[in-house]
Amino acid sequence: MDFAYDARTLELRERLLAFMDAHVYPAEPVLEAQLADPDRPAWAVPPIVAELQAEARKQGLWNLFLTGRHGVPGEPGAGLTNLQYAPLAEITGRSPQLAPPALNCAAPDTGNMELLAQFGSAEQKRQWLAPLLDAGIRSAFAMTEPEVASSDATNIRTRIERDGDDYVITGRKWYITGAMNPQCRIFIVMGKTDPGADPHRQQSMVLVPRDTPGVTVRRGMKVFGYDDSDHGGHAEVHFDGARVPAANLIGEEGAGFAIAQARLGPGRIHHCMRAIGMAERAVELMCRRTLDRVAFGRPLAEQGVVQDWIAESRVRIEQLRLLVLKTAWLMDTVGNRGAHTEIQAIKIATPSTVEWILDKAVQAHGAAGVGQDTPLAQLWAGNRTLRLADGPDEVHKRSLARRELKRHR
Amino acid sequence: MDFAYDARTLELRERLLAFMDAHVYPAEPVLEAQLADPDRPAWAVPPIVAELQAEARKQGLWNLFLTGRHGVPGEPGAGLTNLQYAPLAEITGRSPQLAPPALNCAAPDTGNMELLAQFGSAEQKRQWLAPLLDAGIRSAFAMTEPEVASSDATNIRTRIERDGDDYVITGRKWYITGAMNPQCRIFIVMGKTDPGADPHRQQSMVLVPRDTPGVTVRRGMKVFGYDDSDHGGHAEVHFDGARVPAANLIGEEGAGFAIAQARLGPGRIHHCMRAIGMAERAVELMCRRTLDRVAFGRPLAEQGVVQDWIAESRVRIEQLRLLVLKTAWLMDTVGNRGAHTEIQAIKIATPSTVEWILDKAVQAHGAAGVGQDTPLAQLWAGNRTLRLADGPDEVHKRSLARRELKRHR
Amino acid sequence: MDFAYDARTLELRERLLAFMDAHVYPAEPVLEAQLADPDRPAWAVPPIVAELQAEARKQGLWNLFLTGRHGVPGEPGAGLTNLQYAPLAEITGRSPQLAPPALNCAAPDTGNMELLAQFGSAEQKRQWLAPLLDAGIRSAFAMTEPEVASSDATNIRTRIERDGDDYVITGRKWYITGAMNPQCRIFIVMGKTDPGADPHRQQSMVLVPRDTPGVTVRRGMKVFGYDDSDHGGHAEVHFDGARVPAANLIGEEGAGFAIAQARLGPGRIHHCMRAIGMAERAVELMCRRTLDRVAFGRPLAEQGVVQDWIAESRVRIEQLRLLVLKTAWLMDTVGNRGAHTEIQAIKIATPSTVEWILDKAVQAHGAAGVGQDTPLAQLWAGNRTLRLADGPDEVHKRSLARRELKRHR
Amino acid sequence: MDFAYDARTLELRERLLAFMDAHVYPAEPVLEAQLADPDRPAWAVPPIVAELQAEARKQGLWNLFLTGRHGVPGEPGAGLTNLQYAPLAEITGRSPQLAPPALNCAAPDTGNMELLAQFGSAEQKRQWLAPLLDAGIRSAFAMTEPEVASSDATNIRTRIERDGDDYVITGRKWYITGAMNPQCRIFIVMGKTDPGADPHRQQSMVLVPRDTPGVTVRRGMKVFGYDDSDHGGHAEVHFDGARVPAANLIGEEGAGFAIAQARLGPGRIHHCMRAIGMAERAVELMCRRTLDRVAFGRPLAEQGVVQDWIAESRVRIEQLRLLVLKTAWLMDTVGNRGAHTEIQAIKIATPSTVEWILDKAVQAHGAAGVGQDTPLAQLWAGNRTLRLADGPDEVHKRSLARRELKRHR
Question: Helix, strand, coil % (nearest 5) of chain D?
Answer without folding.
Answer: 55, 15, 30
